[in-house]
Amino acid sequence: MTRRFSYWALALTLLVTAVPAVQAADQVADVFVDSTSISFRLFVPDNGTNLVITGPRCFEFNKRFGKGDTPGYAIDASTRDGLYRYRMQVRPPVDRNTQAILKRARQEGDSCIIWDLRDEGLLPAGPQVVDGYFRVNRGKIVLDANEGRAKATSEPADLDFLAGGPISQVTGNAASGGSGFQNINAADFVINDDLIVDGSACIGFDCVNGESFGFDTIRLKENNLRIKFDDTSVAASFPRNDWQLTANDSANGGASKFSIDDISGGRTPFTVEANARSHSLYVDDGGRIGNRTSTPSTEIHTIDGDTPTLRLQQDGSSGFAPQTWDVAGNETNFFVRDVTNGSTLPFRIRPGAPTSSIFIDVDGDVGMGTSSPGVPLHIVESTGSNTPLLKVTNNAPVSIQLENTAETDIWSIRRSGSGLAMDSTSGISNTLYFDDGRVRLGTGGAGAETFLLAANGDLTIAGTLTENSDRNSKHNIVPVTQDEILAKVMQLPIATWERIVDEPDVQHLGPMAQDFFALFGLGDDNRHIATIDTSGVALAAIQALGTKLAEKDALLQANQTQLDTLQQQNVDLLQRLEALEAKLAP
Predict the structure, then answer these.
(1) How big is the chain by its Cα radius of gyration, in Å?
(2) Cα atoms in the 13 Å half-sphere on the side-chain side of 518
(3) What is the average pLDDT across 325-337?
(4) For all residues of the chain together, what is the average pLDDT?
């Protein structure tokens, strides 16, 4: 503590002289502050910077600056009074070869390559960050004695005895009956044995005789409170890092906070700000961590009144592109937010979603509505509702591609105008279309299709219609009596007619389905006639007619034989008559 008094003369000079910040060898940037703005002058190469400032009532300023730009922020009339925290992150320049190495490492899942690149000097040794605090009071930034320029660290390094420091403290102590100046030249008090205090101890310039300790066992009392652990180990193999417990910043406008400082490393790995809510960090006897709760029920338990959120931020310090994700949830949904790209929400789950809404099995099969998918994508709707199981929407052409990697072509199912088409990239000429109530096969225009099922039910094909009539696909085979079929055919009314849906003057010839069904009882109903049934009826009738013609041919043949016999008999009789007449002639 005597160090403060040994600089008495220097302190008087510094009260009236601003001290410029001195650039440290590893300093990233100078921080410049005036009453309305904060800006940064970089000392390292950059490919741009990110500046984040947070403050009262959910204030957040988050901006990416381009290469060579000066990062900064200017307050305005809407800026509320209070403490603000800033973090300026440098995006390091990365050459193309290093980018290629990083890309390959990302594809291979190799995260250890970063250390090799850092050892080779291709990437910075760590994040190049400048962070700290400033306070706004009555619309203006509160400035320290070193007005207009601040160091990047929270401690002003041995200048904490400026205005408001020990000079005024010593004067105040002297005026109040304390030790005051009478201790300025006092020698240090060295104890060469153990020190046991049967009571409480107060250390600091503001301790007074008759201090009321209450339940305090050890009290530090002054306007700069620090406990430093100075490890004097000299052997390289011994740990010798210096640490410090710090209560509050020394600078005017700084933060009221408690920190653990890595003095040797020049870092502050742990900080708690004043007025942090109770149980901001709580570890119970089971090792469970509570964030804003003293009763964590899981390994990590976070509580908040509005959308508890976990932020995952890749800051660009390892050469990879900066990217920030949020994982959060509230009463309307659980979601993943892409903060970097417009805070879009690419993944959301609504409360009440059923079990196994999305399920990924051990073999990679994905189930939707099922925990036992049997194919790569298995969709199950168990409610019985008459809703589509798959819907594909786009404000441009929509298609689904089907690819067998062992083949060269890719089939697609796509929207074609107001219809649907199926075709192949291999140039197969036949494309299947579903449009305007029609089904078409072939790439030709109207009238050139190889297959056309019109909206009115007409079927036109460019080839031959072949129907199945395999004996192996039939049963209850019963022969018919052709004469009965012929008799019914003779009763079947046949007429010409026009269908209501046809164009005018398009005539057809044939029976009515009702008459056909009434006579033969064939087909599904009395409104349709199968062509195979009409063919069968026609064949049976033709067979009956054939039988009748054969019978007539047989009768005619018999009659012809009889006639031939009679004719021969007539010839014989004529010959005998002629012979008799010859004998009787005179």
Answers:
(1) 51
(2) 8
(3) 96
(4) 85
